[in-house]
Amino acid sequence: MELHPGQLGMRIALNTPARKAALLAPVLVLAIIFIAVSGASFLASIFINRPTLQSHERAMWLQPGNAELAYQTGLQIANGHFSSPSNPSAALKYLQSATILNPHRSNYWLALASACRTIANCPWQNDVAKAVVADPTNPGVAWEAANLYMSTGQNDKALQQFKIVIANDPLRISPALERSWRLWPNAPELIHNLLPRRAEAYFAFLELMLQQNQPDAAAMTWDAMQELGQPVSQRAVLDYVRYLLTHNNIQRAKLVWEQSATLAGLADYQPSRENLIVNGGFDLPILNGGFDWLYGKLANVTLQLDTVQFHSAPRSLMISFDKAQISDAGIQHLVLVNPDTNYDFFASYKTENLRGAGGLIFTLQDAVDGSTIFTSDELTGADFWKETDGSFSTGPNSRLLILRMQRIPAGNVIEGSLWVDDVRLAEHAASSAENFPGQTPAPDIRKARP
Question: Are 348 and 277 in contact (CB under 8 A)?
């Protein structure tokens, strides 16, 4: 069968003006609407960037359904950006309009509640709750909500929001904890109810307790953090041990240092029966804290680890003096000891062009009463490695000693270089046998030299 063109479909004849107009009219209407909307949007973008309220209102007139325009206008009025003082009352109608146009944006509700904060009997003062409902797990929303609750005395609600911040925003953990402590200064309750089971949150709370000088709360926080069994930063350990030693809590500092062997990877920095000096050969990086070496900057004195000159590999401590006038070399070590115990001290040293009246000596002082219980010979005249040693006894109350390299006489000019290596301190062999019955006595370090 043969098909004719007319059988494939119907043709629309446009051979009259009326038919052409009927077809083009919808197209023209759509085009006009598109141009109007685009033009309104373009003009609104121009007006919104002008720093006047009149321009912003024109923008909103052009786009009456744009919630963001209403929000930005209200925000600028509230913050006083239209060359006038802040005016929360005037901002309310714009912010309310934004929440009506789009009730699902938490920042709109927060802005409305914030503007209400300084206005008596404001009907939207509690609308911060709607922001939380709109975005319940957002830490930024929780932070703003918590502060709004805090400003209106709704402390329980503020704490609930600070808990979300602490769990989800690492950058705001510390300020959230500080404000929570201000609202509820109860360490056991905050630890139990506010802290997520993560070591960094416990460390932040520990820092806060140290700043607030709350030793019992700090101890409780450390114990809770230790029970987590999670890795702890070395900084947390050093800060806490420094605080404990500053407050003369030597036994607690000792316990924390022992626990840090596992928690903070400080197993190599533990004193031993053979040597109570941690890192006595300078083989490990110097922590400048805890029970490792401590140092500070002194004028015309340079401290460095030397991998070329050493008594036993791999390095030694080199101290360079450039006409320095000092009382000590700027480096010291805290040593845990027992009372009424005999000890042996030993160190290797070497000098080069060391000049000045007198020299340097090792001293051991009681960290509590400051009494000197040991002094070595002067560390001078040794262009090759030499040894200095000696024995001493601690007093009835000695628990912590400070090892220093003191300048004799203090304040006199000194120049040249001094190397120190293999610094050791241990109980005398007989004392060790008495303190550890049934065990092999510690070796006599004066005979156990490399």
Answer: no
